[in-house]
Specification:
Length: 382
């Protein structure tokens, strides 16, 4: 059975512009590319706007596997369905959608459980085995995190597509496809932060601030931000941060010692949002014995290891857990966040610090690398 569409380009290759990373760390080059027609269960999406995440930068810099080039990065975006392949019934041409790196099939054991946001039907992949992109010379261009939104059109499996309210501002909707959802969800879904609790957040970048926002929404009484940049405290206050620890100004004490002194017995919930194994250990050490939870969100270098004392794990009663996409189920939970934003409960506007045209996409990289940007929205055609 064919997917529903009336697009004049349906079933045909599309030529469009994409920002291609041809070498590690080199500026992206905007070139004409060819996007193939949708295969069964695929959706071709016209990207309206996208944003830059630290994960894009991490893999853009990477010189060894799983790095692979040439590649089209980008995984935070909002767009409109251009056409669909066979077997697609959830969306039709013209629907407003958010593509996400995490799938939700809605049918497997994991998707049907409220205990996990994993999906066994589609495995998580940094690069798809089959590419739907080629350059004008016929060279294969690799996908990134099943989205590749640094292109005017992209191809995404239907299980990675969430239909949203078309009234949602595009520049806010794209934030919910990864970073903000991950942070808010980590507090809301993974940790299940309780009202009146104490939270410590290691790293006040966009994800860390999103954790603060999630903890605020959950009713946390005290939210301690940890960062090397003192200016992050004033910024953090917008998202509910009540206390600040500059990790460079702790003297002869560790950050965990400072937090233990501040809280008496440690924070109820600790979140590592940088991607450093040393900070995971500090977060775990800062956590209250008996019921404290440490949640890891930061993306560390491939092969990074954690080492804990077996007796500490046994006797402390603390838990350590990872949180991919904040424990959020994309199709189920993103619409909830959008409604909370539209109801003026969830703060999204404060995350957008810059906006650029697609031609200036490399400026977005510069702003993030210089620490001047939380989220830079990149407009295809504003």
């Amino acid at each position: 059975m064919s997917g529903k569409t009336s697009s004049t380009t349906a079933g045909k290759p599309i030529r469009c512009r994409a920002a291609i990373a041809r070498k590690p760390g080199a500026p992206l080059v905007i070139e004409e590319v060819i996007v193939a027609p949708p295969q069964p269960h695929e959706v071709r999406i016209k990207i309206i706007c996208t944003s830059l995440c630290h994960s894009d930068v991490t893999y853009w810099k990477m010189e060894h596997p799983p790095a692979i080039f040439p590649r089209i990065f980008g995984h935070e975006a909002m767009g409109v369905v251009e056409s669909v392949g066979e077997g697609v019934h959830e969306v039709i041409e013209g629907d407003t959608v958010i593509p996400t790196f995490l799938p939700e099939c809605g049918e497997c054991t994991y998707c049907l459980s409220n205990k996990s946001n994993h999906c066994s039907k589609l495995r998580f992949s940094v690069s798809l085995d089959e590419s739907r992109f080629t350059d004008i010379n016929g060279e294969k261009l690799y996908h990134f995190l099943s989205v590749s939104s640094f292109s005017e059109y992209t191809m995404v499996d239907i299980h990675h597509v969430t239909k949203i309210d078309p009234q949602t501002p595009p520049s806010r909707a794209c934030l919910l496809s990864c970073g903000v959802s991950t942070g808010v969800g980590a507090a809301w879904k993974t940790a299940n932060v309780e009202a009146g609790s104490t939270v410590a957040i290691f790293g006040l970048g966009a994800i860390g601030l999103a954790v603060a926002e999630g903890a605020r929404l959950c009713g946390a009484k005290r939210i301690i931000g940890v960062d090397v940049n003192q200016d992050k405290f004033e910024l953090g206050k917008k998202f509910g941060v009540t206390d600040f620890v500059n990790s460079r100004n702790c003297g002869d004490k560790t950050v965990s010692q400072v937090i233990m002194e501040m809280t008496g017995d440690g924070a109820d919930y600790c979140f590592e949002c940088v991607g450093l194994s040393s900070l995971v250990h500090e977060a775990y050490a800062s956590c209250r014995k008996g019921w404290g939870k440490t949640v890891v969100l930061g993306v560390d270098q491939p092969g990074a290891k954690l080492t804990f004392s077996s007796s500490e794990v046994l006797h402390s009663g603390k838990s350590l857990m990872g949180s991919a996409f904040g424990g959020m189920k994309p199709k189920s939970d993103i619409p909830i966040l959008i409604k909370r934003y539209m109801d003026k409960e969830l703060r999204l506007d404060e995350f957008v610090t810059h906006e650029v045209e697609f031609e200036d996409i490399n400026k977005a990289f510069d702003l993030l690398l210089d620490g001047k940007s939380l989220r830079c929205v990149i407009w295809m055609k504003k």
